[in-house]
Amino acid sequence: xxxxxxxxxxxxxxxxxxxxxxxxxxxxxxxxxxxxxxxxxxxxxxxxxxxxxxxxxxxxxxxxxxxxxxxxxxxxxxxxxxxxxxxxxxxxxxxxxxxxxxxxxxxxxxxxxxxxxxxxxxxxxxxxxxxxxxxxxxxxxxxxxxxxxxxxxxxxxxxxxxxxxxxxxxxxxxxxxxxxxxxxxxxxxxxxxxxxxxxxxxxxxxxxxxxxxxxxxxxx
Length: 220
Description:
Blueprint: E1 10-12, H1 13-30, H2 51-69, E2 74-79, E3 81-82, E4 89-90, E5 97-99, H3 101-105, E6 108-111, E7 116-119, E8 123-130, H4 131-137, H5 148-151, H6 155-167, H7 177-185, E9 188-189, E10 192-193, H8 196-205, H9 209-212
Antiparallel strand pairs: 1-8, 2-5, 2-8, 3-4, 6-7, 7-8, 9-10
């Protein structure tokens, strides 16, 4: 069933905060002017210059907003008993139960850094959030930076892309080089016909090394 493919990985609040903070740091580094959009500290004159700390504080704010609005759902181990009147909460449950948006909106003492939410009538600890939900709101950064080298293209690269689409080339479908060679020789780049040598080079580069060693899975 498709439901079996659901990513059930749970993140601690510390992991979620670090992920969102990393996204914020990258967002600001791409355009330093964006630092002005960060939420101000409770005491304005205490704003620091450390981007890491500032992005982490902003990450906590964004996650808390998502929890209060119901866009992100969390679970935790609940206790509704105190050791003494006004004392520490005790006997937290051994299993996790849902924390509703109303819990996050109630009078509370929340410390996301230690996975704790204390309310008037109870306390959640060991708070967890679904990894897939965090990534849906704050998508993961690409493993490769988006730089000028990745944006640079030539007409030859475009021609190779057309060949891949024309022959439906994939790991499991490796056309014969001769067929590719004939096709490349009928093409042109910037109004100039593709030479025999260039067509041969492209026909080689568009195929997997294993295919060039005679290891093609299927030829056309």
